[in-house]
Amino acid sequence: MEITEAQYQLIAPILPVQRGNVSLPNLQVLNAILYVAEQGCKWRGLPPRFGNWHTVYMRMNRWSKNGVLDRVFEYLQREQIVRIKLEAVSMDSTIVKAHDAPEGRKLLTRLGSQGQKPFLIMDRAYEGNETRQLALALGFTPVVPPLSTRVDPWEYDREMYKRRNEIERLFRRLKGFRRIFSRFEKLDTLFLGFILFALIFDALR
User: Fold this and answer.
1) Tens digits of per-residue pLDDT, 9-67?
2) Strand intervals (E) in the chain
3) Beta-carbon count within 10 A of 34 CB
4) Distance between CA atoms of residues 78 and 179, nearest Å
5) Strands 88-90 and 119-121
6) What Pfam families does the record point to (predicted)?
7) Is the overall model pTM greater than 0.85, yes or no?
8) Which residues are CB-contacts of 131 (< 8 A; sequence separation ≥ 6)?
9) Residue 73: count of CB within 10 angstroms of its CB
10) Are 146 and 70 in contact (CB under 8 A)?
11) Cα 57 from Cα 24, distance rounded (Å)
């Protein structure tokens, strides 16, 4: 895998400007980081064609710490939101100990009040009347199959329901990056940086 010149030009304006005698251009550094992320190798194990490994490491470390990767990913997200019509939102959850977080409800309210009626795709764990009514109240069209024991089953968009696993598919793609999957990083900043980098690459494809 590699980032092409055309893909690079999409994010080049967001990356720090390189001035003077530059030893490694940003595109070369990005592909070096991509190699480390995919192969899970040590920085010192970078093939010579990518240039000095320490230069690559320092730039990745700097971009992770000063928010460059965050800004690139946010930029790509905004570009995608501008280009596409929000059609559906998938809902999933896991069991964790956490305090009540009203931000989730606020986000759903914002998404459901954008002048359209997007689908809210849920699996059968969310087929209860209360959940479906809440989805409708927030401006969504709930897409969830009824349990087979339902006395009054409803129709739902079966084609749209096939898209419910998009979140899981994203995680499977992230697991293709050995550096992330194996959690080699000792620093949280770099680990999160690699996740952001993988998401950026995924958005560019």
Assistant:
1) 999 999 988 776 678 899 999 999 999 999 988 999 999 999 999 999 999 999 999 99
2) 88-90, 119-121, 141-143
3) 20
4) 27
5) parallel
6) DDE_Tnp_1 (PF01609), DUF4096 (PF13340)
7) no
8) 122, 142, 144
9) 19
10) no
11) 12
